[in-house]
C-alpha cells in the first residue's frame, strides 16, 4: 500500500479526526480555523503506519503553516545539527537530548522555544550560570 493510499485508510481517517478534535479544528501555529487543515507528523517512525504514530507526534496545521513547517525544518534542522556538533561532545548531546525529552513547559513548543532563545541570547544570564556552576564545582 502506498503512503497516499494509507492516508485514505479508515484507520488514518479516524486518527486524523481525533487529532483535529483534540486541537479544536484550529491550526496550532497561527490559530486559523477557516483554511484547509492538515495533520502534520512532527516526525515519522520507521516501519509504522501513519495511524500508529503517537498522538504527541501529530499536530493540526493549516495548509500554509504546514508548507512553512516543512520548509523551515528542511532549512534549520541541518543548521541546528551543525551547531550542536561544533559546540558539544557526545555526553553533552546526551544530556541535552534527555533535557528536551523531559522538558514540558505548559505543553507548548513555542513557549519553550521562546524561553530557550531568550535564555541563550542573554549573555549576562549565561555568565551568571557559568559563574554559579564553577562556584558550585569548586565547593565540592
Strand order of the largest sheet: 1-2
Fraction in beta strands:
5-15%
Mean pLDDT: 88
Shape, principal axes of CA atoms? elongated
Summing up helix and strand content along with how strands pair, one would put the structural category as: mainly alpha
Low-confidence stretches: none
Describe the structure.
By secondary structure, the chain is mainly α. It has a domain at 1-63. The chain has six helices and two strands; from the N terminus they run ααββαααα. It has a two-stranded antiparallel ribbon with strand order 1-2.
Give a concise summary.
By secondary structure, the chain is mostly helical.
Provide keyphrases for this structure.
two-stranded antiparallel ribbon; 140 residues; 61% helix; mainly alpha
How are the secondary structure elements laid out?
Elements: H1 3-6, H2 10-22, E1 37-41, E2 58-62, H3 63-87, H4 90-102, H5 109-121, H6 123-139
Antiparallel strand pairs: 1-2
Amino acid at each position: 500500500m502506498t503512503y497516499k493510499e494509507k492516508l485514505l485508510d479508515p484507520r488514518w481517517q479516524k486518527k486524523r479526526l481525533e487529532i483535529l478534535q483534540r486541537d479544536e479544528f484550529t491550526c496550532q501555529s497561527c490559530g486559523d480555523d477557516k483554511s484547509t487543515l492538515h495533520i502534520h507528523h512532527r516526525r515519522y517512525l520507521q516501519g509504522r503506519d501513519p495511524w500508529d504514530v503517537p498522538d504527541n507526534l501529530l499536530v493540526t496545521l493549516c495548509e500554509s503553516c504546514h508548507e512553512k513547517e516543512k520548509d523551515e525544518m528542511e532549512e534549520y534542522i541541518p543548521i541546528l545539527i551543525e551547531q550542536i556538533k561544533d559546540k558539544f561532545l557526545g555526553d553533552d548531546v546526551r544530556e541535552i537530548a534527555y533535557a528536551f525529552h523531559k522538558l514540558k513547559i505548559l505543553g507548548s513548543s513555542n513557549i519553550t522555544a521562546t524561553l530557550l532563545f531568550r535564555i541563550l541570547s542573554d549573555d549576562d544570564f549565561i555568565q551568571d550560570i557559568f559563574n554559579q556552576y564553577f562556584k558550585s564545582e569548586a565547593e565540592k
